[in-house]
Amino acid sequence: MNKTGTLMVLIGPSGSGKGTILRELLQMEENTFLSVSATTRPPRPGEEHGKHYFFLSKEEFQALIAEGGLFEYACYVGNYYGTPKAPVEERLAAGSNVILEIEVQGAKQVKQMFPEAVTVFILPPSLSELKRRLVDRNTEDLETVERRLETALQEIPYAYECDYVVVNRTIPAAAAELRAILLSQSCSQRAMRPVIEQVLQG
Amino acid sequence: MNKTGTLMVLIGPSGSGKGTILRELLQMEENTFLSVSATTRPPRPGEEHGKHYFFLSKEEFQALIAEGGLFEYACYVGNYYGTPKAPVEERLAAGSNVILEIEVQGAKQVKQMFPEAVTVFILPPSLSELKRRLVDRNTEDLETVERRLETALQEIPYAYECDYVVVNRTIPAAAAELRAILLSQSCSQRAMRPVIEQVLQG
Q1: Residue A1 pLDDT exceeds 60
Q2: B127 contacts on A by Cβ (under 8 Å)
Q3: At B6, phi and psi to the nearest 5?
Q4: Set of chain A residues whose Cβ sits within 8 Å of the Cβ of B153
Q5: Is the dihedral of CA B113, B116, B122, B125 positive or negative?
Q6: Exposed e or buried b for every residue in B155-180, given b needs 16+ CB within 10 A?
Q7: Inter-chain contact B165–A128, Cβ cutoff 8 Å?
Q8: How many CB atoms lie within 10 A of CB A45?
Q9: Beta sheet of A54-55, edge-to-edge order
Q10: CB-based contact A180 B183, cutoff 8 Å
Q11: Which residues lie closer than 8 Å to A69 by C-beta, 6 or more apart?
Q12: Which domains does chain B have, with CATH numbers?
């Protein structure tokens, strides 16, 4: 009997470095995949169906909602975005890990639908460091930076509800902690029950 | 505010390789220490108080029992053996990890006294492999090997109650899993609460 993989939900404020840590993790872990979201917005040039998004019609998306086929979904500016269950469940059953990079609201939905999901909050070392990182990006005016900081302050308390909290001091250290969480999950009693059974049966 | 360390309880049948994995782990982890047991049996040549055991009189040991100063204890052939709380709690408060290598009965006591303890069961890859390892030791007659196998069969179901299960296929792989469990524990929400608080306070 196969050990199933881990569904890891990554949450963190804008500027926490979540995306960079995730890229580092995916490069190091062969058996870990990023979940592909579904959306009803039209593809942009270069975007591929099944790689960047599953591009669905509104009817297809609503059918998925109706049959409980999504871990979470939301509507932004008239378009649906969500995480289809089937491709995630296939990966997990094959023993792979799947990472979901989503917002707090989505994470709460996933945890409710799938309590075995492991939620990890990526925290900046401090708010002043977060501000510095947002300013250093140099892509946004100060007003946008201030708005992002306010959103961060609203999001960070969700860390108290997550299973794990990783502080992004350096990318390699944070990625190493995520890898340790994945490896430890593969040894969790829940994951190992079929193995215990096998050993006991000789 | 300091992050506290993890109390890891290692359990595994005779021949599981628990001791060897533990030595490998302790060599790699600077900040992880083996708990020193207390006993009322007299020291053997070369054994040092505070290093191999805390050698106590029967009265001292019974006083510890009375004041709830032990995580677990048992009596074997007229002597007490147990785990004093105070030195473990000091290490944990200083941010170090502490490992307890004990029997199933002791592990159950520890988990009841200190639910944050993380229990890890070391499993042989199979019963036939366990038998091979016990026979290969070449130190025991076949009858003793058979008795140890029977004890193993009684102990292994406790793996279903442990937090983690590590299969000892190779020593380095098993030690790496223990290290991952320790690192992931240091990111657990429980351990990270003071850090979240710090970040939120700016």
Answers
A1: no
A2: 199-200, 202
A3: -110, 135
A4: 200
A5: positive
A6: bbebbeebbbbbbbeeeeebbbbbbb
A7: no
A8: 4
A9: A54-55, A38-39, A79-84, A70-76
A10: yes
A11: A63, A84, A85, A86
A12: 7-200 (3.40.50.300)
Counting every residue written for chain A, the total comes to: 202
Task: Give the global pTM.
Answer: 0.94
The 3-state DSSP class for residue A81 equals: strand
SS3 content of chain A, % helix, strand, coil (to 5): 50, 20, 30
Say which of B164, B189, B193 has its CB closest to residue A188: B164
pLDDT for position A82: 97
> Do the beta carbons of residue A98 and residue A8 sit within 8 Å?
yes
ipTM of the complex: 0.93
Query: DSSP character for A35?
Result: P
Question: What are the structure tokens assigned to A126, written together?
Answer: 């401090």
pLDDT tens, N- to C-terminus, chain B (202 residues):
568 999 999 999 999 999 999 999 999 999 999 999 999 999 999 999 999 999 999 999 999 999 999 999 999 999 999 999 999 999 999 999 999 999 999 999 999 999 999 999 999 999 999 999 988 887 778 888 899 999 999 999 999 999 999 999 999 999 999 999 999 999 999 999 999 999 998 7
Residue type, B88: V
Amino acid identity of residue A97, one-letter, is N
CA distance A52 to B181: 33
Q: What is the pLDDT of residues A51-78, one digit of tens each?
A: 999 999 999 999 999 999 999 999 999 9
Whether residues A162 and B189 touch (CB distance < 8 A) is answered with yes
CB A149 within 8 A of CB A127: yes
Write out the residues of chain B at the interface with chain A, using a CB-CB cutoff of 8 A: 120, 123-128, 153, 156-157, 159-167, 176-177, 179-181, 183-185, 187-189, 192-193, 195-196, 198-200, 202
Could you say which DSSP state residue B97 is in?
A: E
